[in-house]
Structure formats: C-alpha cells, structure tokens
Predict the 3D structure of the following.
Amino acid sequence: MSQTEDRTGIDWEARFRNDDTPWERPGLHPAAEVWLQTGVLAPGRSVIVPGCGRCPEVTAFARAGLSVTAADLSDTAIAWQKTALRAAKLTGHCIAADILRPGDQLWRPDEPVDLVYDQTFLCAIHPRLREDYAFALANLWLKPGGQFLALFMQKDEPGGPPFGCPLDAMRELFSETAWIWPDPDDIQAWPHPSLNGKPELAAVLTRR
Ligand SMILES: C[S@@+](CC[C@H](N)C(=O)[O-])C[C@H]1O[C@@H](n2cnc3c(N)ncnc32)[C@H](O)[C@@H]1O
C-alpha cells in the first residue's frame, strides 16, 4: 500500500485505471447547472475543483468563462482533464497532487479563489482528513467572501467512501464563526443517479 493510499484508505489511481468509478455521473451535476444558470458560477470567477476525477464540470466551468483549477491525486484523472480541456480548446490549471498532505505541505493555490466546487470529494476523503480540508478551504483556498459550493452526501450506513456528511456534523465542521450558511429552504437535495440514489444536499456556504 502506498503512503497516500494508506492515508486516504483507497487506491484512487487504480480505480481510474480499471474504470471502477461508480460515483461518476452521465453529465453535469444538476446543482452545477443551477449554479451556472443563476450566476453563482459566473464568468470571470476563479474556481477550484478538488478531487475532480473525470468530472465534466471542469471543462463546463472553463467553457462558461471561469478560471478553473482542477486538482486530483490521480495522474490518470488529471491526464483525462487535460485532454478534455484541450479537445474543447479551453484552458485550466490541472494539478496532480495529494492536496491534503498535512502541515506545511497542505496544497494551496497561487492566489485564493472565489469558489470551491466540491462534488463527491468531501465524502470520499477519510473523516480524519476533514479538519485539514475545512482549514484549507477557509484559510488557504478561498478569499474572504468566497463561496464553498458543497454537495453533502447523505447516507445512513456506517463506513465509506462515500462517508456520510450529515448536516449537523457539517455545521460543526464549517462553523458559523468562519462560514455563513444558507437559509435551510435554500438547501436542495439531489439524488445520485448511481450510489443507490443517495441524496446530496446542495448548499452554498460563504466564507466570512
Ligand atoms: C469519489 S471521487 C469523485 C471524483 C469527481 N469529483 C466526480 O464527482 O466524478 C473522489 C476523488 O477525489 C480524489 N482524491 C481523494 N483524496 C485526494 C487527495 N487527498 N488529494 C487529491 N485528490 C484526492 C480521488 O482521486 C478521486 O478522483
């Protein structure tokens, strides 16, 4: 087992090489479509897609005029994203790295960005890495006033990935001292097309 696999608990690179990727959607996440249509993902804004895998949102965001940084520890996934961008004659920053290496090695963009779009990344990482992720989001990745576009995976069974992200735990992880939460009526549930239809709760959190 590699050091990264030991820390992350799963050999993501092997999953992409073997096409064993049940989390992948046939198209754009409907929440991403809403955020594109309503101007949350607006042209000119900068966005990080952590743990991007092979999600088509990277190219879609670049096509919509955003400055996209796509990051993943899988070389195969990042090569796929580069090819997709090139095929669409678009550009983006593609980072092949473990972006949650602890301490000083925690990855950071050259400049903090406007948006972070999380699609099945938070639920994919081991819960022991969640504090590092929340720290990076609030202190290294997002500008003040920047927005975390979250899709919180809901599931009752223990274990993972995907690891459940119940709202009470999320409110603790992304506490009101650092984040402004949306009105509960503005948190929308979207069932995943595979993964037994587990719902993801789409919420836009704003960094104070
Ligand atoms: C469940 S997949 C989701 C992929 C993509 N977001 C999607 O929705 O299709 C989780 C992704 O996170 C990546 N990942 C997991 N831990 C990571 C880490 N520490 N640093 C960078 N990427 C990581 C994996 O390689 C994988 O591509």
